Structure formats: structure tokens, C-alpha cells
Amino acid sequence: MNTHIFHNLFILAQGGTGSGGGGGLLGNPLVMMGLMVVMFYFLLIRPQQRQRKELQKRIDALQTGDRVVTTAGIHAIVHNIKDKTVVLKLAEGTMVEFDKPAIATVTKKKSAEAGASSDSK
Hints:
Blueprint: H1 2-14, H2 29-60, E1 67-70, E2 75-81, E3 85-91, E4 94-99, E5 103-107, H3 109-119
Antiparallel strand pairs: 1-2, 1-5, 2-3, 3-4
């Protein structure tokens, strides 16, 4: 099916069904630029915006005991949550305070426990 679509696009780029004329619809540089902008939006920008919104929801819903990974690659457990920062427990007796935007991934407490119990079986 994809081959058929690409074949049709190739024919349009050639100038239609072979009857004389200019460069066809896709021969116009402005149309090609517009198509590239649309492709970049749907392939790069939109998925990244969706991921950013999802991560922001997870950060806003942080709770004590959730497992997180920071942008520096530090794995920790949430110990305390403040307005703009989060205190993370790295090891027994080791607490470090990070800004909330420094959190890269969040794993909820219940799903982390379920994953640990299934790994031990």
C-alpha cells in the first residue's frame, strides 16, 4: 500500500499523468516547503510536546515513595516534595535536593513495587 502512495506522489511530482505542463503541483518550491514544515510538525514537534506534557503531569503528581531518575542519571526515591524542589533519597541517610525540572522519569510507588516483585520470581 505504501508503494502505491509513493508511486502516486512520484507521478504528481513529475507533473501529473504525463501530459505536458509545468512541474506539477509538487514541483512548486513553496508547496514542497509547506509539506516539509507539516512533516516536521507531525514527526518531530508534536510527539515531543506530548511527551513534555505527560512528564509535567507526572511531576505534578509526584508523591513520597515514587521512584525517579534525574536528568543526570541518578536513580532515587522521593522523600519530600516542596514548591519548586524535590528532596530525593539516594541511599540510607543520603538526601539530595533537586529542582523539579531535573526529573527525567517517574515510576509510581505501586508499579515500582509490582515490577520488583515480578523480577524476584
